[in-house]
Amino acid sequence: MNDSELVPGKSSLEVAAALPDDAEWSGPTIRYDLLKEVVIAVVVVALLAVGLAVLFSSPDDSPTTIRQWSTADPGDFLTTAVAELDGTSDVATYGPPYNSTAGAAQKIGPVSLQQIAGVRVPINTAQDFVLTPLAQQAQTTPRLQTALARFGAAPSGEQGTWETNYSKVLGKGAKTGQGAFAVPHANDGPVPTMFASLLAMADSGALDASLTSSTSFYGTDYTKPLLFLADGSFLADRAQTQHLSGDQWGMMNETGSYPGQAWLWLYTMWYQVSPFNTSVNADALVWGVMALLTLLLLLVPFIPGVRDIPRLVPVYRLIWRDHYRRLQSNKAGGTNHP
User: Fold this and answer.
1) How far does Cα 112 stand from its chain's mean position?
2) What distance in Å separates the CA atoms of residue 79 and residue 126, rounded to the nearest whole number?
3) DSSP-derived secondary structure letter, 300
4) How far apart are CA 247 and CA 254, in angstroms?
5) What kind and span of H or E run contains 175?
6) SS3 category, 253
């Protein structure tokens, strides 16, 4: 005798729901080989993953380097280097985690998580991107050593004048027939000598090596060269060409026309709409919105009305349609078994 026979008018499912959790099920059963299903699923997914990776793998684009940048556009490289030296570049004025520039941190209302985290990756653009690499090169270049000594001994006001005058004539610079980049003379002190040496370092690949050098065991920290590249237009132009910029939904794109991280659509969507696409606090605001949406998702089981949506919208009946079809058939036939 089964449970449904003990309780007339009740189906076996209703009887089971009323029994303790540790009660033995005495209703109908179906033979099911779980291990077999798991093995089949793993094999099919593995074959699909390997096959699709072979057919549609992401392109292996070569990395963008400072050497590529300085060779392709020496004018933009030198303009960026001057901004790094005089402290007017985006990285130099970014604020935490790179420096403590006042008023630079993004906020959500009165709260700035960026400011709370503080300077975690200290970057001094003048020292890290210009003066320190040049000091390394000066060890074997007496003329550069003299120029650095003169620049370092000058008052900050005079240094600023040299940098400003050099920047004014930099736009008139051009490549010579020998492939060098010539800049007209100006009242710019030792700055031309310094930047000519920096450009030579970049063209030879020595600047890439200098910015990735580390005192740690692993020399794979590309933070400095990436930040230097980000301040110029060369990397941004390449990203624009590959549809990777922020206004092109770049966060969820892959290089070329390959599908990318489609699951990031909700995150990158906010950068395309107002007020996020025009706000200086866009990163902080988008992070706040996503944090709020994630919290709401976690609280769905506790929010009245929202938690009832699965019951009010009976999609589950479509998924379990075979079960409910058998249940209706059994009821019509006068039995309580599903």
Assistant:
1) 20
2) 13
3) G
4) 14
5) strand 174-175
6) strand
- In the chain, what percentage of residues exceed pLDDT 90? 53
The whole-angstrom separation of Cα 206 and Cα 103 is 35
- What DSSP element (H or E) covers 182? strand 181-182
Using pLDDT thresholds of 50, 70 and 90, give the confidence band for residue 20.
Answer: confident
Q: Which DSSP helix (H) or strand (E) runs through 247?
A: none
CA distance 307 to 304: 6
Contacts of 334 (CB under 8 A, 6+ apart): none
d(CA 51, CA 44): 10
Instruction: Give the C-alpha distances (Å, rounded to integers) separating 26 from 3, 30, 48.
Output: 7, 12, 40
Helices (H), the chain: 3-6, 12-18, 34-56, 66-72, 74-86, 113-117, 125, 132-138, 142-153, 156-170, 191-204, 206-212, 223-231, 234-241, 265-269, 282-298, 309-312, 315-319, 321-332
Pairing of strands 174-175, 181-182: antiparallel
DSSP 8-state symbol, 264: G
pTM of the model: 0.75
Report the distance separating Cα 325 and Cα 338, nearest Å: 9
Contact 108, 284 (CB under 8 A): yes
Residues paired with 253 in a beta bridge: 259
pLDDT digits (tens, 9 = 90+) for 178-225: 778 888 988 999 999 999 999 999 999 999 999 987 666 666 789 999
Q: Are 211 and 137 in contact (CB under 8 A)?
A: no
